[in-house]
Specification:
mainly alpha; 2 helices
Length: about 40
């Protein structure tokens, strides 16, 4: 079964997530999850 996908319409957000994932050697999903967790708490 395929993993769920997140569609991002913002080129800026997509490019930033891609650069961070490459730099930190993590998946884009991991970068997005880590960024959203503090936002959920607020």
């Amino acid at each position: 079964m395929a993993e769920p996908q997140l569609s991002v319409r913002s080129a800026k957000a997509r490019d930033l997530a891609h650069r961070l994932a490459w730099r930190e050697r993590r998946s884009i999903a991991a970068i997005v999850e880590r960024a959203l967790e503090p936002y959920e708490i607020r």
